[in-house]
Amino acid sequence: MSSSKDWFESIAEAQRRAEKHLPRPVALAIRGGAERGLTLADNVAAYGELGFAPHMAGLEAKRDLTTVVMGQQISMPVFISPTGVQAVHPEGEVAVARAAAARGTAMSLSSFASKPLEEVIAANPQTFLQIYWSGTREQMARRLDRARAAGAVGIIVTLDWTFSHSRDWGSPFIPERIDRQAVLRYAPEVLRRPRWLAQWAKTKALPDLSVPNWVAVGEPVPTFFGAYGEWMMTPPPSWDDLRWLREEWGGPFMLKGVMRVDDAQRAVDVGATAISVSNHGGNNLDGTPATIRALPAIAAAVGNQIEVVIDGGIRRGGDIVKAVALGARAAMIGRAYLWGLAANGQAGVENVLDVLRNGIDSALLALGRSSVSELVVADVLVPDGFTRRLGAPPE
Prior knowledge:
By secondary structure, the protein is of the alpha/beta class. The protein has 14 helices and twelve strands. It is globular.
């Protein structure tokens, strides 16, 4: 159990501690977005443009934060978004899964993760597997077979990453594997972070850049760039491909990366269980609006036909309450838990979830709501011109 001195009271403090602990290239890889970072900045700033309409008496003494996402009951409307190769801490995705389980919420595991799906599901049975459309249909079917056998409770198909755009401040060097050459190149930065180096030294192993969840059990495990190369060489999926994938899986199925009303309607047509309003955390097409700006129009169009979740820019529990009031079932977090993981391992991720839970509960109290299900648009002050109706007919 962590001591009280390890506790942090905000996501901003988790970020500060993480960046103090991590080698600079690793910290920058988490913090940065594509190109100028316009979308990344808008994801965060847009929440600050929204206000609340609180009450001052007759408030609810008890609040119910629970909700259901893709058939999974979770303790609050927030769960873990899939992020790749979590070498910020030796336990990586397993530590995150344990933390999510300890706080009663779901885990989403990236196909680019550094830990096997089977280990993560053992740590948290409420685990969704995230996949990309890559390779042949036969390869995709084998990956689904592995997910099914391992006990994954749902599939998340990421469609909001089209290419790895460069960053104006310089993209960090990522080696094919951690070999002697890579160690020598990183040595000056790593030596400036002796605590991070000591964590890895205790494991007597170097960070592993292979991706075990990219293939079926028994197939050769590729490196990160081996899998990335296969994805780049695969033509993007059609809507018919996505319908086939949903039918092949046969269970809860999310399409992640929806920013347009017309795409949301197509997701309903192919039978998806859920969509995530997402721009890949600002790491895809720079200049795409903040996800919270696109959410209201999408939720109004399809929210009674499909579950709508959101990711991107979540830094406070109040942000989640704003998103739920504007039509989201729940929110997924990415950078926030990575900073917690880097700052203090599993306990740091639990700390992040506690910060968010406290913020959600406080906002519900002030709004006079006894449950997250009672939140409505009128609880939030939305300035004129805030929303973006991408792919929607004129009002």
